[in-house]
Amino acid sequence: MIVDLSQDEMLSDEDAFLLDIDDDNLLNVSDKGGISEPDTIVSDGLSDRYERDIESEKQKDVALSSGDMLDDDEVPVGSVHDKTEIDDNKFSYEREKRDKRIDGKCYCNNGNDNNINVNINITKPQEPFQPGATPENNNRRYLAMNNIGCITTTFHETYSTITVEFHDQSYNRGYNLRDEFNYSMACLDKDGALYAVESSEMSDSQANPSVLFYKPQETWASKSEWTVTLPQGEDIIAIALCSQGIIAATSTGVIRIFSLCGIQTYILALTSVVCMAGYDELVLIAYHASVGYKGSQNLGYILYNIRTNEILQKDILSITKGSTLKWMGFSTNGLPAIFDSKGVLTILHHHRQTNQARWVPILNVLSNRKEEEINWTYWPVWFTETTLFCFICKSEAYPQIPRPAFDEIILKVPLLNLDRQTGQFEETLVRNSLLATFEFEEAMAKNELDKARQNIKMKNKEMDKALLEMIHLACKEEKQQRALDLSKLLIKLKSLESAIKIARFNNCPILADKICQFKEAKVVELRQLPQSKTGNSSTTVLE
C-alpha cells in the first residue's frame, strides 16, 4: 500500500512540508516521535511488502508487453515462470522511486500497526558553541579567543587550571586561576572574564548544578567577583559578555540577563540557542528557528539591546547552504558578523535601523584557492573594517596550544570579475559604501557624529576616487551612458567637477554637459538640506 504523506490525516502540515527527499542526512522518523541514526534500516515488514509490490508490477508489465489481455487464472507468456530475461531498464523508474522516495511517498504496513515509518531529509541540528572555543586536545583547550586575548584551560584529575592572556599586556596583565568547577565556557573583554559550566552528576542522588562566574579585571571595590548557581535541571548552554551586562542562555529555553555586578535585570524566553556574542549594549543571538532540512540549519537571529530591552532585528540567519555556523561576533568597532564553515564572512548591514538589516557577504576565503590549499581550515578570531584575523590550519581542524601567530586576510567583497580592473574598482566602491554607512549609523546611534566625521570623509574620498577611475575607463571605451550613471554616484561636488574634466578630456562634450546639468540639480538639492548631512543613499557627510 502506498501512503501519500501530504494528506492531512496522515501527517501534519509541518511534516508534509519537510518531506522534500534526497539522499543526504537521511533520518528515520516514526509517528511516535523517535528519530533513529542515519543509515538505519527501518523494517517492520516494509521492505518485504515493497519487494512483493515491485515483483507484481514486473509481472504486469511483462504481460502487457506480450500484447495479450490475460484472464486472472492464465500465466502470461514471457512471465517469470518461463524464465524469460527481463530488461532492467524497464524497471529503472521503480528502482529510482524506491531509492529516492520521490513525490513524498513511502511504503508502510497494511495491517493495524500504529507505527508509520517514513524517511525525511532532516539535517542534524548544530550543537551550541562559544566563539573561539576549541575541542579538547591533550587535556587542554581554548575556552575563548578574541581581539582582547585568549583563555585556555588545562585539565587535571580533580581540578583544572585556567590561564588568561592578553594581546596587549601593557593594558592588562594575564593571570592563572585554579578551577574547581571545570568550566567549559568563557568570554573575555577588556573589563573582565565570564565563565560557565553545565551541571554534572556525581552519583544517583547528588549532582553539581550549573554555575555562572564573573571575574572583573580591576575595580575600585573589593569582592567584585560573583557566582550564581542555576536550579537543578537547568543548564547553561551559551554565554555572552558586553560592557553593559552578562547574558546566559539555558537548556530550559530561558535567557537570563545580569548586570556586571550580578544583579538580575531581565529574563526572556528563547529556545534552541546556538551561539551568542556581545558588544557594548548589544547581544547577537543565533538559534534554531525550525527543523533543518536539505542540508540547511534553518537558523534565526536576534539583535537585542540589553540596556533598553529592545529587539532591533529578528530574522533568518543567512549562512551558505550545506554549512554550519562557525563563528559569530562583532568587529573592533561594533559591526555584527558571522563566519560559516564554507569560509564566508557576512556582515549585518543597517543593523542600527530597526527591522531593516540584511546580511551582506564581505569575504569568501575559499574563492581562488590554489590546489595545495584545498584542505586548509580557516579559524576566525576577529576582524576590523579592512582585515580578518584568523588561524590558517594546514594539518589540523583548529588551532593548537601554544597559540600560533595570527594570519591576516584582506577583506574583499565577492563580486564578479575581480580579476579585471573594472571589477576591482566596483569592489572598492561597494566595500567602502558599506563601511561608510556603518560609520554614519553607528555615530548617529551614539550621538558621536563629530568624532566619526573624519573617517567618513576618508571613505567618501576612496569611493569617489574609484568612481572617477571607472568613469575614465568608460569614456575610453565610449560607454557614455555608463559614465553618466557612475557620475551620479559621486558624493563630493569637487568630484563632479573632476568628472566633467574627464569627459572633456576624452572628447565627450555631450556627456560633459549632462554631468554639468546633474551637478546644478544637486547643488539646488543640497541647499535644501542641513549643511552637515547629505540626503544621498550613502548617508555620508558633505561639506
Physical arrangement of strands within the biggest beta sheet: 6-7-8-9
Give the low-pLDDT segments.
1-47, 67-86, 97-110, 531-543
Rough outline: elongated
- Counting helices, strands and paired strands, the structural category is alpha+beta
Nearest-angstrom radius of gyration? 31 Å
* CATH homologous superfamily heading of the largest domain: YVTN repeat-like/Quinoprotein amine dehydrogenase
Mean pLDDT: 81
CATH arch. level architecture of the largest domain: 7 Propeller
Question: How many individual helices?
Answer: 8
Q: Which CATH class of the largest domain applies here?
A: Mainly Beta
Distance between the termini: 77 Å
Strand content: 25-35%
Total number of domains? 3
Count of beta strands: 30
Helix fraction, binned, reads 10-25%
Stated plainly, the CATH topology of the largest domain is called Methylamine Dehydrogenase, Chain H
State the oligomer: single chain
Largest sheet: 4 strands, antiparallel
Pfam families: Ctf4_C, Mcl1_mid
Subcellular location: Nucleus
Keywords: Coiled coil, Nucleus, Repeat, WD repeat
GO molecular function: chromatin binding
Q: Would you summarize the structure shown here?
A:
By secondary structure, the protein is of the alpha+beta class.
